[in-house]
Each structure stands twice: as structure tokens, then as C-alpha cells.
Amino acid sequence: MFSQISSRLRTSAVAVAALGTTAALAAPAGLAQAAPTDTAPVAARSAGATQTSPTTVTKAAAPAAWAAGTRAYLVITAPGGTSAVSGAVTSNGGSVFASYDAIGVIVAHSTSTSFASAMRAVTGVQQVGATRTSDVPADAYNPALPANPAQSATTLTESNRWDMTQIKADQAWAVSTGSASVKVGVLDTGVDDQHQDIAPNFNAADSASCAYGKADTRAGAWRDVGTHGTHVAGTIAAAKNGKGVIGVAPGVKISSVRIAEPTSSLFFAENTICGFMWAGDHGFKVTNNSYYTDPWQFNCPDNIDQAAIIEGVRRAQVYAEGKGSLQVAAAGNSNYDLANKTTDSESPNDSTPVTRTITNACIDIPTELPGVVTVAAQASGGAKSSYSNFGNGVIDVAAPGGDGATGVYSTLPGGKYGSMSGTSMASPHVAGVAALIASANPAFTPAQIRDQLGTQATDRACPSDTRCKGTTTKNGFFGEGAVDALKAVGGNTPPPGAYFENLTDVAIADNATVESAITVSGVTGNAPATLKVGVDVKHTYIGDLKVDLVAPDGTVYTLHNRTGSGTDNIVQTFTVNASAEVANGVWKLRVNDNASQDTGKIDAWNLTF
Fold first, then answer.
1. Considering the domain boundaries, does residue 26 fall inside one?
2. Distance CA 26, CA 467 (A)
3. Please, is 220 exposed, middle or buried when counting C-beta atoms within 10 Å of its C-beta (0-12, 13-18, 19+)?
4. Which residues form the active site (predicted)?
């Protein structure tokens, strides 16, 4: 895990906002008052109504006042059977906080240490499990709305960004920006709906807070209690309005379902269940899930509590998918092989973590649930991001997540912008591409969208890394490959030729010249007139640098010649007319540093013929 920020938020680096402001993932503001469902009348909500079906709300006794020691439990029965066991919840020292009758799940609160064991003996109860190892916050019973941040206007104009270019989103926009009838749910820390780049596409009517496990539809309950959800939302669908940034699918609608709780920013199972049920009932074609369900990094079926968590969240995901909603989720930032699990040292993260031995039967929720698209992260050069989890048979597709000094640039609360890195940032790229597929194919089911993501992805072979198992077409680092937004909108582009890359770092010292070589073989004839040279050079003050491509016969093609002054890093794909050169042979990237004080490295580079 990365020490800066817990991997439950699949983000490995802190955001740096525009205008010189630094925005960390700070402790969030207060949370909204929970309400049972958006269809419940105000009177029913204030009386503590509980949901007995997706569209029917009945009166129930209000939850007891909060007391120290209040814990949350999932009580699982047959779908349609919650009313038959809700009385036993009360008689065994608990209260019904929320009820999802369509999937047979009750969210119960109790201060009794014997509540779970007593409920397991009740006829009709299939499973009972505690969802946390800490008390439910008092805030659950009388929460405050999140802050509505003051907005800063921006002078930033839209420009091509490496992440959008990498998935061909910039080319896709010329074909389609997506349909306004497609709704994408951001299940996260909330979204700043007032942001100048999000407001044009924000769907308040289908936004809510699901913190604590039941929906609160008050205006603003969906707002961000951190920065993470707003950043994710911008990557999916920031408006194409000339300001700041453009999302992958800038024509679709964004809805916020805040599932993070204030202060802790934790995402407990009942919150995720509420979010998935909301997604299904509100017509979300896609949801993005850049988190894991707290407090367990992995939930194990041989643990009685965690087994109930697995079953409850699984049922909610199946319900959402059955209603037409595809879930996309981040794989995580621990550089962990999800196909070969051995230990978990991060759980439980709401009390005192312990190191425990686990097996592959233990799963990361929601990303390893059946039907969920599991997304790994790529660096700017296309390689696996250093932090990204992996696993043959687990990873479905890959997308830009950033690495090191190169992050994903997107929206931040208060009209700001900044960069973050993580599988949190990769997942919304895939959610955006899925939204484009749904826009182009309105009748597609979630399974068909999921299949198209893989079919259209660009194959990425394993690098020289023994941890990467599988084939060129499907492996543990990239799944079925890197998603392609242009193919998603039905656009056509000439198929790429042979691809070669060098990921070995080469240090660039002051007043020195260094080279990195790629040996090309198996290509017939000469190089093309549109040879693509992908360059990832990490170096402060790039005005010091001259960068050349050297052909096998020694011919020099200058890519960059001491421009950019104090700008940091060269992360760019250059097009070179190399049609006079024989393709096969040793090509070199030559970097010449012409001044003192600033050093760096060739991080990666590639050739596409």
C-alpha cells in the first residue's frame, strides 16, 4: 500500500490543484441526513420509513437514538422476505436502519453483543454479519449536509492530455461525445456539482448520498466530502466547453452517489449496497467504483461476518446489472497479484489492522465480484503503473492511471483542477469508454458493453516481468488490453503496425548525452512516413534538452530542440517521416543535456510502425 493515502480510495498520489493551490484528500465535511428512498414522501422519511421494495415504502418505527457501541449488521434472508424477519431484529435488541426487500437484505443497528448470534437462529434468516469493527458514528442519526465550496473561475483552456490521447478519446470526440440519455453513476466521496466543468452534465435528479446505507435525496447530499469523487467525475464527463479539461464522454450525464462517510471517508458494505440498488433503480448505464469496501481489503467466505458482506454486496450488484447497469471498478494500488493472494496486512482499517493469511477465495469487493469490470492502471508510456494491482484472469482491461510525476489531470472541488495517480484514475477512463459504447449501442446489455470493452481493446503483451502471466491477447497486467475510445464510437483508424518499446530507465546527467536503444525486427521494408515515436522523459527545465531519434543508418531526426523553457517533462508522441529508412535494425533515442542544475531520466520510449 502507499502510505500517503489508503488504497481503499484507489489513488496513489495527492492532487495538485491549478492556480498554485495544493489539495490533499483531507478529512471531509459533514454528511447528509439519510432517507430511505427517493420515492418516500417527506413525512415518511421523517418518521423513519424503510424500503420494502424498489418502489414501495412502508412506515416503520424510527431507529433508536444513537448510543455508544452501536454496530451495523447485514441480515440476509430470501428476496421478498425482509418483513418476515424485521420483527426479530427489534425483539433481539436491534433496529432496522434500512431494508432492501428486492434482494432480501436488512441493514440493522444494535448495541447488543449477542445480536448477530441471536439473529442467526431466527427462522428465515440465511446470514448475519457485522459490517464494521467500529461503532456506527452518531452522525448517521443526525447528519449535516456537505459543504458547498465557493467556486473559482478558470482561465485554463482545454488542450490534449496524454491520458486522452493514449485511449484515442481526442479522436473519438470528432465522431461522438456520447448521448445525454446515458447516465453514469459516480459512487465515491461525492461530486462538486457546481464546478464549471461538471455542472453542464450533472444530473441532480438522480443523485443522492448513500452514506450509512440508505439514500438521502436532499439537495447537496451528493456533494464531495473530499476531492476524489470530483476528480473521477471530470475524467468521465467533464464538459467540452472550452474550459479546463474534457472528459472521455463529455456528452453523457453524471450522477453522484456519495457512499463515503464523513471524517473517516470509509466505504462500508451497506453504503455500497445502497449505491448499487440506487444505480439499478435510477437507470444508470454505468457506474464507476474507485474504492474497496471497508473495513476489509479482502473479504473471506470462511469468516461469518465477511461471508455476509460478500453475499449482500453480490446481490446488490446482480440487482443493478439486472436493471441494465454495468459496474466498472479499480483494481487497487498495492502492486499485488490478485490471482495469488497470500496475506492481508491492511485489515480491518476502521480499528486495528492485523496480518492474516488469506487465499484466492478471499475477494476484493466490489472489483472481484462476478460481472464487474476490473481495471488496471497504465503509466504515460503505456506500461503497467508501478503501483497497480494485477492478476491473470482477474484484470479485464487497462487504462491511463499515471505514475510518478505524471498523473491524470482532472477537476477538483471549487472550480479547481489538479493531478492524481492511481487505479482510481484508470477506472473512470474505462467507465467513460463504456458510456460511449452505450451511447452508440442503446440496446446493449451490461454483458454486451463488457464484451465490447475487451474486444475493442488494444492488445498489450507482457513486458520482461515474470509476474505477468498470460498471452498477448489476455494477461495479468493488462487483461484484454488498453481501452479504445475511438472504436467505442464506431470510428475507424488505420490499424497500428508493429510496436516496440524500451522501459529501462536511463539517467540524464548535466551537460551529458545519453542514448536508449530499441532493436526492431520482423518488419518488412522501410519505416512508414508516419512513424510514431512515443517519448517519456522525466526532466525539470526541458529547455535544457535536445532529443533526437537516430535511425539504424545513423540519420538523425530531431524531435525536441531546447524549447519549453522551465516546463517539466516531455511526455509526447512525435510523428516522423522515416520512409527513407530500413525498418529493421537498432533505433536510438538520444537526449543531450546542455546546462547545469537540472537532471532527469529517459523513463520509457516506443516506436509504432
1. no
2. 35
3. middle
4. 188 (charge relay system), 228 (charge relay system), 424 (charge relay system)
Residue 192 is among the residues annotated as catalytic for this protein: no
**Residue 509 and residue 514: Cα distance in Å, rounded?**
8
**Residues contacting 151, CB < 8 A, separation 6+:** 194, 195, 196, 414, 415
Collapse the DSSP code of 379 into the 3-class scheme (helix H, G, I; strand E, B; otherwise coil) and give the result: coil
Contact (Cβ atoms closer than 8 angstroms) between residue 125 and residue 75 = yes
Q: How confident is the model at residue 54 (pLDDT cuts 50, 70, 90)?
A: very low
Query: Which residues contact residue 495 at a Cβ distance below 8 angstroms, ignoring those fewer than 6 apart?
Result: none
Instruction: State whether 434 and 555 are in the same domain.
Output: no
178 shares a domain with 118? no
Q: How many Å apart are CA 486 and CA 393, to the nearest integer?
A: 26
Element housing 127 (H / E): strand 125-130
Are 235 and 126 part of one and the same domain?
A: no
What's 184's domain CATH number?
3.40.50.200
Q: Does residue 20 form part of some domain? A: no
Which of 101, 135, 139, 188 is an active site residue?
188
pLDDT in tens, 321-346: 999 999 999 999 999 999 999 999 99
Cell 458493453 belongs to 449
Q: How many CB atoms lie within 10 A of CB 69?
A: 11
109 carries an active-site annotation:
no
Looking at the structure, tell me whether residues 205 and 337 fall in a common domain: yes
Do 235 and 23 meet the contact criterion of CB atoms below 8 Å apart?
no
Distance CA(182)–CA(286), nearest Å, equals 8
Active site residue 224: no
**CATH code for position 106:** 3.30.70
Are 179 and 309 in a shared domain? yes
CATH of the domain at 597: 2.60.120.260
- What are the φ/ψ torsions at residue 500 (nearest 5 degrees)? -135, 145
- The answer to whether residues 313 and 383 belong to one domain is yes
Interhelix angle 423-440/228-237, nearest 10 degrees: 30
Q: Which residues pair with 607 in a beta bridge?
A: 500, 533
Give the per-residue pLDDT at 501: 85
In total, how many domains does the chain have? 3
- Confirm whether 442 is domain-assigned: yes
One domain, residues 528 and 482: no
- The domain of 305 spans 162-489
Q: Return the C-alpha cell found at 414.
A: 471549487
Residue in 228, 231, 539, 560 annotated catalytic: 228
- Asked if residue 155 belongs to a domain, the reply is no
Q: Which of 99, 424, 427, 516 is catalytic?
A: 424
Integer Cα distance of 193 and 177 in angstroms: 20
Mean pLDDT of 43-62: 31
- pLDDT one-digit tens code per residue, 367-425: 999 999 999 999 999 999 999 999 999 999 999 999 999 999 999 999 999 999 999 99
Do 176 and 286 lie in one domain? The reply is: yes
pTM of this prediction?
A: 0.76
Q: Which residues contact 43 (CB under 8 A, 6 or more apart)?
A: none
